Fold this protein.
Amino acid sequence: MKRVEHAIQAFAYFLKKIQTNYKLNIVWPFQNGGYMESLRKLVQELGLEDSVLFQWWLLLDEREQIHTNKVLLFPSYKEWYGLVVLEANVYGIPAIWYDVWWVRDSIKDGINGFRVPKHDFKAMWEILYQVLLDEEEYRKLVTTSYGHIKNHTTWENNTDRFENIIKKVFEKYDRST
């Protein structure tokens, strides 16, 4: 579902084009033996052993280092709401994502990331290249990504709003009986 192999393939195309020492950090706590082995094999086949880092967990003190990442590649085709994108936006990290309907609520094309056609990792690397090539546009995207997350209300605000609605319904009900 997460299509980590698509992120690896997009990154491989990107590295061939830009010829730089960027690294791909894959932070993923699910270690399905067969799938992980296929990912490691793909990394080896593409000659990316020194460029792809697998991390299973981020400790609390390591999370402060997240802001050093540039972009989140998000090729998942089944992700409810795209919470990981919003978490990245907290650090000003924009996302490049597959156009799947259940992520559209959290990602706004051109604001906190860019949408690419579903299953098209080649389009993903092209957007990655364009985003990182133009530093001024990249900085603007970082700023709007961070601003986007500020527009999401907190859980407490949502529960307060819901409680107020419930109170109004009961007040109306009490008066009508």
The first strand starts at residue 24 and ends at 27. The first helix runs from residue 4 to 18. The mean pLDDT is 81. The chain is about 50% helix and 10% strand.
